[in-house]
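Memo to structure team: turn this sequence into structure tokens by end of day. - J.P.
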Amino acid sequence: MSSVEYLKWIEFVVPEAIVVAAALAVLFIDRLALRDQAPNVRSLLGSMFSVFACALSLFWMSQNNLEGILGPGIAHITAETVLAKQLIVILAIGALALACDAKFTPHPAEFLSLLLLSTSGLMFLVSAENLLMIFLCLELATLPLYLLACFDKTDKRAAESALKYFLFGGMAAAFTVYGMSLLYGYTGTLELSEIAVKLGAIKPEPLLLVGITMTLAGFAFKIAAAPFHLWAPDVYQTAPLSASAMIAAGSKLGSFVVLTRFTSIALAPHAGRASWEAWLPGSTPLLAILAGASMIIGNLVALRQTSVRRLLAYSAVAHAGYMSVVIAGNPAQAFTPVLYYAFTYGLTIIGAFAVVSVVQNHSGSDAMQAFDGLCARSPSIALCFLIFLLSLAGIPPLAGFFGKFYLFGAALRSKPALDLLWLVILAIGMSAVSLFYYLKVLKHVYVFPAAPDKCALSIPLIMRCAIILLAASVLFLGLMPGLVLDRLPSH
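Reply from structure team:
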């Protein structure tokens, strides 16, 4: 390899290198210069430094042409994957902003470092086109999240939920690597494009279908799709808010991007069919089953929740189902609608978690009763919460409405036409169900009066500005989706 090629490879990974360097630097800065400061000062300065590093990574990606192939099929960097990296970094900035007042730990630098390392893993993941690279990046992105889930040692439930997350994650990793090994055994290659060529010449034998099923099961854990979602409610409820936001937003976006690439490239020859009248074995019927189960279980169980954080967790399961619909129906054209929806969903869920954080810090609870009279206690935050929840429900003109319209429209363009009409109808029906439990939360915000002992909320300026900016982004992306879509070569 020539020195020119080596320098080009280095240029490809500069955005990830900036984030990794920031993860190490925040530890050294905290140790050498901030150890005598109060934990809240250290968390504020550390999060500001981390946000600056992420902004620097964004700037580098916007100023340089990073398209190309890294190594012999290890990663394929295109305009789409560069945009996916940028969106992951933006979501990471939102999660880091929630950690600016990390009162739950005396070690904020370690917490921020883990968040940054997970971000770097997701950035590598979205451009990976090699089974081994995909698996390594998934683990690099997920291992820090296991630690983040139990970082709040003041909450005894966090250790239990993190252990559940780790055990489920270990089992999912075993499923993934074993399924990938079967695919490698049948094709003799690790590169997605070459796997597609080899699979095109192979009949869908039972053991091959086992490999496809096990690999998709591992991905289903990462996106919290039913029935692989059992870890999500506990982790969303007990993990620090910024960790929950990163798991729900950044991790979901990165996992859906690699799932879309894997199904549209490697599994294209054995997609199968999930029509109501005719089923053929392959990835499509498996994804259709995951989508249907996620939408039904996520929405129906969310109806019974009294904890807003658990409600958002089951809502995340349902949203994983919505995004799986288009991957099952039209994987070749799923990248753009999935990327847009995952990003807008990520902004929305981070904003919702930020509001929950504000309320929980004042009341000590995330129960719906803690949100009573929020409109009187903080009208601006209540309005932002209204925008977040209605966007999750898919109400126009918010980003969630356009995202669902775009997703379901792409699914209906499946080949053969309208093959997944039944699944789109189910998705629309479940979206209507979701409106009920979002309105149930808003009823506490706008209808129920606050208790006499509940005073106006005192919200740090940085947190208030972050919430308002997120709400404005959700509104503007619904009115002007081209802000994201115009960055893609075709949509």
